[in-house]
Design goal:
The chain is mainly α. The protein has one domain. The chain contains ten helices and no strands. The model has no long low-confidence stretch (mean pLDDT 85).
Length: 212
């Protein structure tokens, strides 16, 4: 039993060690979205704008987890037993991918809630589309150019130069556009499911209070 656990830990470290770190990076904008968009006050102080900048700098880390499906594909091709693939790789990787994307969905729902509160409800769809575009670009720069969110502060000139070069190059631009379309479609589906579950939960609460 001890040998099996040791092998499982080795397998996790080799192919799935990214999960905790990437989920942490996705959690940062998720947590910030509640402070930025769900707090009682709508006053935008200097601290609010700093947090807003950090929010958007780290937000692409959430949909970035979708691209980590490549780790699952590589792991399944590494010759491990069906039990390890079924009981370790698939559950862990799917959990990370789905959790990261769900944090992205909730973050944008919080953003829409804030826009509604300040009287800008008509711009919710526009803000979502713009966010998808920025995140598609961020995912591309992270996956293919290997930039991190903090590179925007530590090496902004290089990030800007390479980004502009990729946006004016045919192949990178096509990849970014395809990523944007995929992200938009997946977000719309996940948004409907999330809102449906939320409304169902509220309905159950109302019924429970009514019967009590």
């Amino acid at each position: 039993m001890r040998e099996i656990l040791a092998n499982a830990l080795d397998v996790f470290n080799r192919h799935s060690g990214w999960i905790i770190w990437n989920l942490f990076l996705a959690f940062i904008p998720f947590a910030l979205s509640f402070w930025l968009y769900r707090r009682r006050s709508t006053v935008r102080t200097l601290l609010w704008w700093v947090a807003f900048a950090v929010f958007f700098a780290f937000l692409p880390n959430a949909p970035y987890l979708l691209t980590d499906i490549i780790h699952l594909i590589r792991a399944t091709r590494s010759g491990y037993s069906a039990w390890i693939i079924t009981l370790i790789f698939i559950p862990l990787h799917l959990f990370a991918i789905l959790s990261g994307f769900q944090m992205y969905v909730i973050s944008l729902l919080n953003q829409g809630h804030y826009l509604k509160r300040i009287g800008l409800e008509k711009y919710i769809n526009h803000s979502e589309i713009m966010t998808h575009a920025l995140c598609a670009l961020g995912v591309y720069m992270g996956r293919f150019r290997r930039f991190n969110s903090w590179d925007l502060v530590s090496d902004p000139a290089n990030v800007l130069l390479i980004t502009l070069n990729d946006l004016t190059s045919k192949r990178p631009a096509i990849v970014i556009v395809i990523s944007f379309i995929g992200l938009t479609v997946l977000y719309w589906i996940a948004k409907q499911i999330t809102l449906g579950l939320f409304l169902r939960f509220r309905e159950m609460q109302v019924r429970r209070e009514w019967f009590e």
